[in-house]
Protein 1
Amino acid sequence: MRTPIAVLLLMVATFAAGQAPPQLNLMPMPSRVQLGTGHLLINQSFSVAVSGYRDGTLERGVQRFVADLSHRTGMRLYSTAAKGVAATLVIQAQHGSESVEKLGEDESYELTISESGAKLTATNPLGILHGLQTFLQLVETSTDGFSIPAVTIKDQPRFAWRGLLIDMGRHYIPVDVLERNIDGMAAVKMNVLHLHLSDDEGFRVESKQFPKLHEMGSDGQYYTQGEIKTLVAYARDRGIRVMPEFDIPAHSRSWFVGYPELASTPGTYKIEPGGVYTVMDPTQERTYKFLDKFVDEMGKLFPDAYFHIGGDEVNGKPWDDNPKIQAFMHSHGLKNNQDLQAYFNHHLEKILSKHHKTMVGWDEILRPDLPKNIVVQSWRGQESLAAAAKQGFSGMLSFGYYLDLMWPASQHYAVDPMSGAAASLSPEEKNRILGGEACMWGEWISPEDMDSRIWPRTAAIAERLWSPQEVQDINSMYARLDEVSWRLEWLGLRHRSHEDPMLHRMAGVEDISALRSLADVVEPVKDYARFENVKGAWDFRAPLNRLIDVANPESETGRHFQSLVQKYIQSDYQDHDAEAQIRALLSTWRDNDSKLKPLIQQSFLLHEIAPLSEALSNVGSAGLAAMDYLDKSEASPGSWRAQQLAIADTAKAPQADLLLAVVQPVKQLIEATARHTTGTGPTHEGTVNPDNRVH
Amino acid sequence: MRTPIAVLLLMVATFAAGQAPPQLNLMPMPSRVQLGTGHLLINQSFSVAVSGYRDGTLERGVQRFVADLSHRTGMRLYSTAAKGVAATLVIQAQHGSESVEKLGEDESYELTISESGAKLTATNPLGILHGLQTFLQLVETSTDGFSIPAVTIKDQPRFAWRGLLIDMGRHYIPVDVLERNIDGMAAVKMNVLHLHLSDDEGFRVESKQFPKLHEMGSDGQYYTQGEIKTLVAYARDRGIRVMPEFDIPAHSRSWFVGYPELASTPGTYKIEPGGVYTVMDPTQERTYKFLDKFVDEMGKLFPDAYFHIGGDEVNGKPWDDNPKIQAFMHSHGLKNNQDLQAYFNHHLEKILSKHHKTMVGWDEILRPDLPKNIVVQSWRGQESLAAAAKQGFSGMLSFGYYLDLMWPASQHYAVDPMSGAAASLSPEEKNRILGGEACMWGEWISPEDMDSRIWPRTAAIAERLWSPQEVQDINSMYARLDEVSWRLEWLGLRHRSHEDPMLHRMAGVEDISALRSLADVVEPVKDYARFENVKGAWDFRAPLNRLIDVANPESETGRHFQSLVQKYIQSDYQDHDAEAQIRALLSTWRDNDSKLKPLIQQSFLLHEIAPLSEALSNVGSAGLAAMDYLDKSEASPGSWRAQQLAIADTAKAPQADLLLAVVQPVKQLIEATARHTTGTGPTHEGTVNPDNRVH
């Protein structure tokens, strides 16, 4: 059984009136779930029949579904090609989806499962693909085989745009890593892969028109046009659009290595940290001729209707410094650099339009005089999104979904595109808010650890964008996230399995259990703290081979420990099972430093974590001492508490760009030892913080 | 430090006279190693200079080398493009290698490392690539950074053909899985990837000439011609030839699905288990016209000079049963089916020759009248190889290197192409023995577990084919294999990291530690036992999702336990450290069944391992009881021993196609308790096996 009990207890999400709360491991949560009675058994005679419309997308989807189910259950299962009324699962789509997947196509499906069979219907194969993922998530392992609970699900997405941006400009990500991430996206019903294909540090697509873009604008790591075609087809088969982004006029140094004539500042350019900063020159006719040919080529390579031109973070200094550009601005009545960028975007939009593309850009592109069909992607927040909607522009949210900031899943989960300023929009304006995108910015990722930055947290964002707004229970989300996290590893993602090889490489010894224990309870520093700690200029060529590169953004052990401590305190210290687990963890941590020290000493790469390891042991000791007080129902002396809290506070400081994720619950334990103001233990002198006595 | 002490103690390999035994973690062992004094430090100022010949292969190889070193050390390191005398590592090749890599090209290199710098020279980039791998294996992590011991290595391969066959006919293996295996091959200096591209169960390459081959002859899983080109270029960049195999006239049902006219038996064919057996019809002109066009197309797609036509396991019954074929044989004076196959091969060889390809085939193709330039790949053994060599044919060995037989690395390691009948060949005949190939037959592999069947064992075969024949010490081999195994995981191979996700999927619960403990001490049944246990016909579509599919062919824990027991016994039971480790393992196993039982009960997929889990606990208890006798220097009663040995023998029986890899050492412990014939313990009645008293 896939621990459904725990999930059942935790699920308190609100649902459509009259419906029972589903007790199912589904993520994202469907919009309507009606539990029936009994189960549909899955055994050797399981079969699938496609009745009605069928095409290649649908058939390959069914084939993958059967392979997945077969792999999961360990049974040989076959997709039956024949139309059979006796099939266990009958699939029926009304018609095909668009040959190039379109924004806003019907993605809804209905899935009915009874003891005697299952039926999946949808308007088109996109809904069928989603329904099959739901079916797979419903499979339960049990003592006598596999089964699916009887259930009726009517489901459709809340938002039409549910994306994931991957930035391969800074670090090249091989195609197979992208493909496994597409599999992950499909598993949680996301539908847009946004490829940030160029930035200062690299241009990553083969251009036949302008070969110096990829040849000189990269370190040799780029996607061939053949690879892009394969990737787009792979995504299309899974109901996922692929939108390219070529970030201009800023973030474009890689273009200037091969084509310096496009830059606002004369000179030669290299792919290297530092170097001359410049932006594209929007005043030259040749810039637009170049872009026209470029959009023609790339627009054909990427069939999606949307084309992202970046447009963010333009520093106008190169424009200020160029007299020709200043003269141009003067003669064209362009008052400032914002006007010049608007001039650029206006021309660019015409080029895109000529090639049948709709322009997408970051907040900064927004100007009232641009055509209303453009889409604004907001890294600034719901206010910016609402302002755009009021002016008639469509938009989607990425503020709050930046995966590189290392936030816990709950923090991303709390961000809603329709909250804040967006909540008070008119219905018509609200329709312009298309959805959102999780953003995997690439400054600190490598193919080895990227999965661990994206998953499982992105599944929580996927739920925010798919499920009804009312689905907000954090405990339920985490219980289901833990399940989906394993499912994603089965699909080939490496957000868990990347750890051991990396730890071994760092330690250089066979037994890494002590290093693993530490790695399990640390998290990378949050927001932009890692950048702030870089000595000198950030260098994209830095090898990503420190403990911070292994550590998951959110420590599962830390979260588990936190909830054990809550449980223990809430039980008024009577929950002996929780107590035993807390003590076991604390003891492991207390004893860990002495085991880890030899590894730290003999490996250069581990030196930086020595203080962190000591801090963990100190916290373990402090926690155990607190448990002793609590166990004996004895109040601790105030001076002892002050001392222990000081130890804990020291342990909270970042070390090696890492944070210990278990300090806060230990502080709670220490503070809880004050509960008996007339304890039987010896009292000591020393100042006692009265706050600590309240609990 | 990368546990060099252990390796140092274990290294007793024989080397060229006058040389000190190297204390280095190299695999394969170089042919000559001369240790110097001191170390070369690797720090931020490390740089590489290519002096002399340079080309794309060499430059990309250096770029990968620097990236790997950078990743390992956590330091930003750059390949310097400029020719610099001050570079840490100077690389010098005399000229380029052939544009299409050729069998027998010079692969030698010399690597000299001193405290002040390193120099790597080779005739051509192939040697440079090998030397760079040696360099990477020499890197040691230490307390103050990274270093390489001063050393002079002169190295070249013993055999020119060091291959790995991967069979994707039975189960499709995606390109990225092949690519990571190519990385593994390059790391251990293998140089031929042999793709078994077609078999009864699937035809895996796009054919533009005959599209029904891949369209109807596969389940839709095949390599496009674009993918093949990419793969061949990827391998070429790493000094690896790619040889295609299309197995005919047998093993070719997949061809007949689209082109039944090629078969000896009229009818329609499907990709399915069972079904009509037939072979290609060698009596029709159209067969050869087809093959001529086919070889023309595939010969261009695969530029290698060698083309493998299979030729194995022809069952001539379809020929016997076809009157037209019988009439043909009669009119052409072909006395039997062997003659008919020879007739086929003769024609086929002419076609290959016309397209500038050299024929390679399995033992069965060997007939004296074939041209002497063909190559025989022997699955039958050194006798067959020697017989071929005597007739003037070249050959290579695969007997003894079948990875699907689940042998321990030591067993493969002991197989030498030049042993047995081959040892007594003349020098000229010996020259015809080109090397060998490890064979990863595909009946029971999936992309998920294939790496674990290939690695790390194939590294031992690679050493057999590269290193001097005298390199044979098994302890040294295993010590170095453990190191290289981790290195291969760093390269992206998943022979270790596949386990946890698979175990989780089977168990369906978060805590799989008890299942992991069992998985760590089991091995798949050996040779063809898994086939023998299949009920009904073997079905290539069976999902590979049992514990046997997770279990490594050779249990590292089992090997470790075995050596602990040897150490303990050899110390006359005085080695208390070994004793403690033995007791800890035995206790874990004794207690494991009670932890694992709940998981087994609730997961259908695990039911079959219940007896195995019980057996492990019984063995743990028996071993602990034996330790108690040994600890007290007390002889055990004969009846007790008989009873315990019976328990151990029961535990040796295969369960769920798995073997417990720790039974034999436990039996040794039990038998050792007989050592004091006049023990102080109570004596019991019962028969005592006198054999047990001898020890």
Protein 2
Amino acid sequence: MSSEKLIYLPLGGAGEIGMNAYVYGYGKEGQERLILVDLGVTFSDMETSPGVDLIFPDMTWLIENKDRLEAVFITHGHEDHVGAVGHFWEDLGVPVYARVFTAALARHKMKDRGAPEAEVITVGAWPEMTKAGPFTVGFLPVSHSIPESAALVIDSPAGRVIHSGDFKLDETPVVGEPFDKDLWAEVSRDGVKALVCDSTNVFSLHPGRSEASVGREIEALVSEAPHMVVATTFASNVARVKTLAEAGERAGRSICLMGRAMRRMIETAVETGVLKSFPKVVSIEDARAIPRENLMLLVTGSQGERRAASAQLARGKYNGMTLKDGDMFLFSSKTIPGNERGVIRIMNQFSEMGVEVVDDHEGRYHVSGHANRPDLEALQDIVNPQMVIPNHGEHRHLRQHAKISEARGRQSIVAVNGTMIDLTGNAPRVAGYVETGRTYLDGAVKIGALDGIVRDRIRMALNGHVVVNVILDEDDEPLGEAWCEIMGLPEQGRSFAPLLDVLEEDLTQFLGRANDKTLANDDKLEEELRRIARNTCNDEIGRKPEVTVIVSRLS
Amino acid sequence: MSSEKLIYLPLGGAGEIGMNAYVYGYGKEGQERLILVDLGVTFSDMETSPGVDLIFPDMTWLIENKDRLEAVFITHGHEDHVGAVGHFWEDLGVPVYARVFTAALARHKMKDRGAPEAEVITVGAWPEMTKAGPFTVGFLPVSHSIPESAALVIDSPAGRVIHSGDFKLDETPVVGEPFDKDLWAEVSRDGVKALVCDSTNVFSLHPGRSEASVGREIEALVSEAPHMVVATTFASNVARVKTLAEAGERAGRSICLMGRAMRRMIETAVETGVLKSFPKVVSIEDARAIPRENLMLLVTGSQGERRAASAQLARGKYNGMTLKDGDMFLFSSKTIPGNERGVIRIMNQFSEMGVEVVDDHEGRYHVSGHANRPDLEALQDIVNPQMVIPNHGEHRHLRQHAKISEARGRQSIVAVNGTMIDLTGNAPRVAGYVETGRTYLDGAVKIGALDGIVRDRIRMALNGHVVVNVILDEDDEPLGEAWCEIMGLPEQGRSFAPLLDVLEEDLTQFLGRANDKTLANDDKLEEELRRIARNTCNDEIGRKPEVTVIVSRLS
């Protein structure tokens, strides 16, 4: 038996939806040569990560082992797969491989961070293969909600692994390659050791529907709209943007793209040849001169993002365009869990303007880009892998996916971020654990999710902040009274006196009675002042705030 | 034509879901005698109201006019209809009328706030009527997801108004009165001026299903579960709690209620005679001794609330009970928009324990308590009102409800919070606007949503907080260096020096070069110090924080 091992190590995306990053390795234990598949981001939210700009997987382990890293391979151009390449290129220092459209998007990401665009290398689809240490890797086309998604065929001396990436089984995807069952069967013919597979839609029990199915419905809707039509979808869903634009065109409307992300995505798709035809678009300036009933705007912001075009239109105006009574706004998208409030806010703002909002609660104007349970089962039947390793999903998705795989006679395992799996034998086996977590991009700085910085912000948001300032002279005697500032707290409470006055009085009284030992000891003094400030606030306003104490000594 | 007017004025619940509060008035303009229907709360969230304990409608207008207020009538016992009675009783000082079960819940609310429970007066159902100034008010039974919900029949010299409250048309509601079509027709026979009607489910296009329909499904599920079963639903949904308990009992399981709200609700339902039979329950102590496969726990926390029983079980333990591999957890509930993250968190925690989580995405184990669009239309046909005034809903719900009402030949209007509607004539007419908004219960203090207090907390959460402290002597000369504290900010940035050091150096340098005029002027000095602190942070960490400046003068 060989002492070389084939390992799989998710660093992001396994135990969550978002920020995909998966390591494969081959070689002697602890000396495996490594490749990284995908390097994505996830987005912050007010509840857990206020003020954070972007969330990355914790790449510490990989950076520590970067001398063993051969290359990064990107399956497709969604933010949760490619969004972090620019942020970590300097730390990793290896080439990034992707197909032409994805590579163009990856180069944008590099450029945005001042990283060298030339380090992104464009490769062709299967049967082209790229050598990376002990691996050869091919990009096997598959359908998804962005053009040119690819599964990776990862060959090593220990056998073939297929890493599905995000996918659906769509034979009429409008833009990009249809799912080619015969090609997948051919690639799998000589035996596949492991299928590492997207789990996001495992709880959806009906077979997925084709992108082509929404076109007729959208066209019927748009053709009957009496006034202006505005539609939003994910900017990266080029097929949907095209479907929307063509529906508008057939209804005799001029098409205008609004929102930087959408324009950039369509331009990139055209430039790279992924998008062969697209209705003529008019500029925003020209659009303003076109009669509203002859116009259709395609806009960013399907998730209610506050700075996107849709939210700005909902608040009143975007690039000089406004919506009016009788216009229609179509959400050709689903709301990602957690974004409901933002989307509902926009819907109500449009309602106040008299705009007809059409959404997709019955699935008429949107289809998912991911494989549902029957599709996952169908893919297993085609690939016939020895093992199925569920990835990209919350714990419940991975677990369910492992369960249905085992029920079909496949070896499987639930491997969350940080779990190193040995794929060498006949069944997956836990080979170890690696510390993982989340890294926050916070302004210009990368910080750890557990560094306490964001925790302090959350505490200030929940509890308010009191600053206590005292000055002591050379003899450790208080000089004047305690001085406070409050932020995020009511100005008065139960006693109806200003909270600041009550605080300063209580603290000054304490200073008057504090003994020399306390006054001479910064830590002790701070602790006492904090305790008193918190208790006074609790008495007055029923809340114990965060307290910062500043002791200044004239010495 | 009489100069007396019948007015309707929503103060909460019209333009949002939650915190219902509706004023009716009759009399000469500006001197109308008033009644209030419902006095509810809504719940805070981290995004818009971090740290806030409860949200109330702004009652300022009503408090200013309390000499005209006759009484409060509560339609049913949900928090968004009764939750604020204890908080405003002292301000309003009028009796609160409700039916027996609702009154018992209202008395709990009064007691919790130290308000006199005796001010809650129990009244019977229609045809009993209560006189309140120019109004007589009757409680007309209707089905909903809490026992003993009632529409109000509000008679005045200007005619009869029916205020639906929350309702569904359920003829087999398991607990409480079935919807009685004949009774409603009889009440409406002599003409109804206005139907003021629940709008929450207007976008649901299928007729609502009966509470009785979920019993069989739940029973099938529970009877096949191999290990312990835990189920959660809204504590106030007494019918569902009973259905769950009976399903467990029939499957040979002992029933244990966990969570204060659920026990209190069932006890109150039994004590008031609303709940005639309920399976025998065991105490938590006894439950621990019962074999797991013979046990069913009914727990609070269907919305993922962090302190409820379900979330505590998901984190590990509640009252000594733990869940294990193979146990089942059933969400017999829907997730209210905005609560998805909390519910998903729990689901994944259970998944990690090996617990089977069953939820309701296909509507098998839960039905809504509100009337869907066909039900709203059916009620209009029964009541045959001159006007339909949509209430309880976001703007989009009210607008759609008005639209479908007008399409059926009814007069209608979209009246959001603060819009005073004159119902006297043949059509609803806007009679004026009243300032409204939201009042926050913040610890022990009521604050206005726009007071800036919560805004400051959100800013600290998004931007972090820097405190700058400088001391000036009697001659306005800086004494020592500037001193800073940071909270919620990275400790170092681009220069790799500690952020505090860079801040203090930049600020101290400024103090050294500042002219006498600036040093002598607190406002000017603070402004400059704030500007420098923000710029330094922006240079170092790419973020402009909130800055509090404390200038201490030894004078």
